Amino acid sequence: MRLFGIETEYGITRDDLGEVDSVVESMELVRAHLTASFERRWDYAGEDPHEDARGFRVSGLAQDKEEDEFAKIDAHRPFSFHEMKSDLVLANGARFYNDHTHPEYSTPECRTLRDLLAHVRAGDRIVQRAADRRNKSLGGAHVRLYKNNTDFHGHSYGCHDNYLVPRSVQFSKLIAGLLPFLVSRQVIAGAGKVGIEAQESGFVAGAYQLSQRADFMETELSVDTMHNRPIVNTRDEPHADRTKYRRLHLIIGDANMCEYATALKVGTTQLVMDLIGRGAAPILELDQPVAAVKQVSRDADLKATVRQKNGRSLSGLEIQEEFYAAAARTLAGSDAESDWILREWGETLRLLTQDRTQLIGKLDWVTKLWLLETFVREEHIGWDDPWLASLDLEYHNVNVERGLFLGLEAEGKAWRMTTEADVEQALSTGPHDTRGGLRGLCVRRFPDQIKSMQWERIQFSGGLIPKTLEMGDLFNPEDVKACAAIFEAAASPAEALTVWKTRKDSPS
């Protein structure tokens, strides 16, 4: 059963201030989405990032200490923790909130790549529209948003792809299969980056690399996400029935502007997990995965090789080819979307070897490199010119009037799977076959009767007995549609829950 989603943290700044308080700016941006006053609805009690999928619970995270420091700094602010977070659940089932120093948009759960791409684009538009409203109140186009992963000053923010995984698949097997795949996935999903950067050394201009996140990967496995960043995050927070499911939460990915790159990033990862579940993934063990992430990223010619524990060395492209070959042997003919992914994956790997110019407008790192090479040639500057880092940043500007990628797309030079009608629908409605769409439906129909929300449940107000819609095991698309039809027709949440319970309890 396929279910996935993407969380995007946006870079935010103001060009009218010498020093930007990103906490306040992120909060004000989220608040600008509202047409009424903020009401707390998100239930943080349901979140527990300390459970580790390797079978233990950590007593503390590095980010816990940072949150304590934030709390001390925030003590002077004239608003509470929940007011600062301004956590919103939108009518399309998405979540939009202040992740302390960055506005974050989490898509609703999606079952198809087309739905996912539409909701990712809807997120970009929602945050930019909030910026437009914020700028109107400021009297100028001062707030700027970037869908990227670095500020070029040693700080990284994430774009996390998430997948529903059967708990029957051993986590150790997931790790073994995913590590080499994720190390090499950047050859198709990297966003491209000028220079090399690290928290300890700052930014070094000059080189061009495939990925923005590669510089910030520090370990193979960890439950942390903000420090000691891992290739595979081990947080065991399924947002579902934990006896049946786990959630794979990947923080290594770049924020892509190209729809094609996003589709391949998520689509190929899903196929690799299908391979792992069938015991058909290629057996590859990298000698030093963390070093390999950086080696692969820092060679735009795709010739750098990384050593395996058996002594054999492979390039990132060759690793991808091994995974593609296994997927083609095992999964061809499974369904139309799998066949599309396989066809495009194979063609992309071929073009990366033979003619990558055909991937301009499809892969971000290829598109950005083409733009920068053109600029370097026309302006007669070197790759260490600070102008290039500025252009790199503007590639990711989500304002259609300023963003370099969006300008290319407007000229018809970028591949799209979505239509404008798809995106318009995703702005206001969630997928019809996932609980994300059901969550959005409840927000639209009963906004004043929602007491609290989490990914897997909605609690409604009124009466002495809590009325809760439990969605921890609500993944069958026909069940989702049936539940949505009940909530669409009901006069109240109580009526809908009564009818839904009767349906579930009745013999099939």
Overview of the molecule:
- With 508 residues, the protein is α+β, with helices and mostly antiparallel strands.
- The chain has two domains: 4-421, Creatine Kinase, Chain A, domain 2 (2-Layer Sandwich), CATH 3.30.590; 434-505, no CATH class.
- Helices cover 42% and strands 16% of the residues.
- It has 16 helices and 19 strands.
- The protein has a six-stranded antiparallel β-sheet with strand order 5-6-7-1-9-14.
- The chain is globular, with a radius of gyration of 23 Å.
Helix and strand arrangement:
Elements: E1 4-9, E2 11-14, H1 22-32, E3 51-52, E4 56-57, H2 62-74, H3 81-85, E5 88-89, E6 95-98, E7 103-106, H4 113-138, E8 143-146, E9 159-166, H5 171-189, E10 193-198, E11 202-209, E12 219-222, E13 230-233, E14 245-250, H6 259-277, H7 289-297, E15 305-307, E16 313-315, H8 316-331, H9 336-354, H10 364-379, H11 387-395, H12 404-410, H13 420-428, H14 435-445, E17 450-454, E18 457-460, E19 467-470, H15 477-489, H16 493-505
Helix pairs in contact: 1-4, 4-6, 4-13, 5-6, 5-7, 5-8, 6-8, 6-9, 8-9, 14-15, 15-16
Please give a handful of descriptors for the protein shown:
single chain, 508 residues, alpha+beta, Creatine Kinase, Chain A, domain 2, 2 domains, six-stranded antiparallel beta sheet, three-stranded antiparallel beta sheet, 16 helices
Number of helices: 16
Indicate the CATH topology of the largest domain: Creatine Kinase, Chain A, domain 2
Main-sheet strand order equals 5-6-7-1-9-14
The percent range for strand residues is 15-25%
Specify the overall morphology: globular
Number of strands: 19
